[in-house]
Write a structure and sequence with these properties.
globular, 4 helices, 10 strands, alpha+beta
Length: about 230
Amino acid sequence: MIQPNNYQAVANLSPCALPRRSASAHHPDIFTDIYRDDTYLAIWQRSLSDELKGAVTDFMDINKARQGILAVTPHNTIETLCKTFGPNDSVVRLGEDIALLVDMFCCLFDLKRAGLRLTKLDMAMCPRFHVDRVPCRLVTTYQGVATEWLPHEVVDRSKLGAGHQGKPDEQSGLVNGTHHIQRLSLGDVALLKGENWSGNEGAGVVHRSPPVPTGEKRLLLTLDFIDD
């Protein structure tokens, strides 16, 4: 952790020389840390209410669509989700929570709208560790296993992409030991700084979708910037 009295000295370093940190807290104010040059990941650690968990379970049972890719504003999120998945109670209740996240995301980054993807999964969507070529992405898991990520300092980025030479992540040399693999918890809301964030090239969060156990399903939400 960088102490306040040392922050100015750190701020004067080049982006490549900066130490990198993840930040987490039990309140959404932690999201503002994503604007720190040294922060690549900001996690709001939260628990889902029983009511919301019930709505998610009903949503997974009732709705057959595997994915919705939508452009939404903080004001039309619930309406857009109802048009896509059907105007039932589970969509409305889930939509209320998603609308809150859309509002936070758009307010934080001064966006008029966001790209929303809500996906039901029974397998890993992106099973290999990778970085996103976006400015910043919000991710949260409403059901099932949550996103895995690697601390910046333990990654050999030369092993990303074709650098793995066909070997599994755990054997490619990308990371020295599976004990370094971190995982978000169910309900956590994370901002992942990507490669296209100004000054962050070569420092995007390295992450992947975890394997989904047989017979289980996962509900994943992501929010992205939309160019107007």
